[in-house]
């Protein structure tokens, strides 16, 4: 609360006037800063209806620091003119003056001076008139004396353009008497105590009214990152559709499960170092289901199950190399292989949402580490139509209903499809996922029955999160450049269904 002496002084001034008084005038009368009076007004308002205060604003012109200097000493052009003697002054000397550069150009445009470039001693500046009237100084002195209204708007704007004048908005309060006006300050109670109730003293006291619309204090707490909010929403969609989450805690994977088991040849470009992170320690894996590995080797190098294979010399040394997994499909491959080892096959639905790693060039939409969402269904006689139906249901739960499917190529699915959705904001079709039916070279080598099909689809987690929260640069979502305030401010994710 403001000083009680200031409060009582304000009240006495308000008492003397009938229609009210401006807080600027109050500050002038008491000889204090206007902000002190503003604080006093707010303190008096908190006491109840002692006063009534209406905020209002007014504009006026003030001189800048440079404007004040010119009002005292004269304009730059006038100072330059006065510095030139009758015999003239070398231009290089003139430019050394404090007002030289600005004053020279202004005086030249006013035709007060001229420049003789062919003078014998070098360029020399001479007067063109005997005397000048410094109108700039006169106008600034008018403003300084409170006569800015006598200047035309054009003249004010010209001085403002030269940064000699500035328009200032002043906010003040018009103060009038309230219904409970008094020149004495009575402190209002903020708390009803047991002692007041017991003694009955509360009847004689004035209580500050409660503000039931006031916001409570914000509690310090942790906040969920937007990426994790969207991840939770996707996970809920899969669970509602009856899917089981796959274990994805092995970031390091052997090339066998990451590539070979998916019928991806060892000379495929994705297995080069410029696309994949290879580990140096431990450099290779050793434990594999050897009978299954032999079947994988045979289907790669010789063919089988109706396929002619890739016809190359498959090497176990390549399959043993450890990598940071490039996709969660490596986990799907392990899970499908476990299904094949059951005595009797049972249909299953799996999903995973976890990190994958690729040797990407970092830019606004690509990182070397990102999240992949993957769904897998294994059942008897699944077809491309089943895949399209499941995708329609899955994306509908995400709020995406307008879908198109485009044929594509993947090493381990045939047929394969890219999934597109029409983006209302961009007014074009954008890719939202990839999908396909796992190849028989992959499934039959695992030992699954011939009439069992496995359909799968995947998409990134970062792209829908960026779209959902209006983030244009992925480095503002993930990594050391993330603004922690953004994590605090982002609302709960709700995918519109």
What labels describe this entry?
497 residues, alpha+beta, 7-stranded mixed β-sheet, 3-stranded antiparallel β-sheet, 19 helices, flat
Walkthrough of the structure:
The chain starts with a helix and ends in an 8-residue tail after the last helix. Helix 5 (76-83) packs across helix 7 (100-109) and helix 13 runs antiparallel to helix 17 (440-446). The protein contains 19 helices and 15 strands. Helix content is 35%, strand content 22%. The strands form four sheets. Strands 7-10-11-15-14-13-12 form a seven-stranded mixed β-sheet, sandwiched between helices. Strands 1-6-2 form a three-stranded antiparallel β-sheet. A hairpin with a 7-residue loop joins strand 4 and strand 5 (124-127). The protein is an alpha+beta fold. The longest helix has 15 residues, at 226-240.
